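Thread: Newbie trying to understand structure tokens

Hi all, I'm a second-year student working on a class project, and my supervisor (Dr. K.) asked me to get a predicted structure for one chain before our next meeting. I've only ever worked with sequences, so writing a 3D structure as a token string is new to me. If someone could post the tokens and maybe explain what I'm looking at, I'd be very grateful. Here's the chain:
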Amino acid sequence: MSFLQPRLMFLLAFAGCSLLMLIALYLQHGLGLEPCPLCYVQRAEVMLFGAIALLAFLHNPKTTGRRIYAGLMLLTAAGGIATAGRQIWLQHLPKDQLPECLPPLEFMLEAFPLKDVIAKMLYGSSDCAERGWTLLGLNIAEMSMISFVLMLLWSLWLLLRKQ
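---
Reply by user tm_fold:
Sure, no problem. This is what the structure looks like when written as tokens:
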């Protein structure tokens, strides 16, 4: 089936990531939902996944190159699953066990070394535990988890499929 060519699959992966970022930007700027530190990390993982997919589309590699790109996408999706999983876990913690709030990202970037900012963002904060907006009974972190699982499966399929 010619429509299942790896190059088209990489383009569709990039398009899916672009759609996810448009939705995230709409939720932030259209609905006024302010992202938490883990949301920013998940956005970065979606953008990295999409950038790798776009590079693979533009490069149009043979089998070994395709597997390298798919492997990188798989690792990125696994990182996204871990980040979304951390956020979902924080959402189910009792309030007295939540980590403390973090200052705004802009302040942290000015006041702390980059490695400390990254560590604090990956750890999350009580802001990450808010469930807030939902669609079909799923909050944003849960929908993000579903998206990353789909990305992982997509990458796995690209990695393991025969030419």
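A couple of things are worth pointing out once you decode it. The two ends are 11 Å apart (CA to CA). The chain has one domain: 2-160. Feel free to ask follow-ups in this thread.
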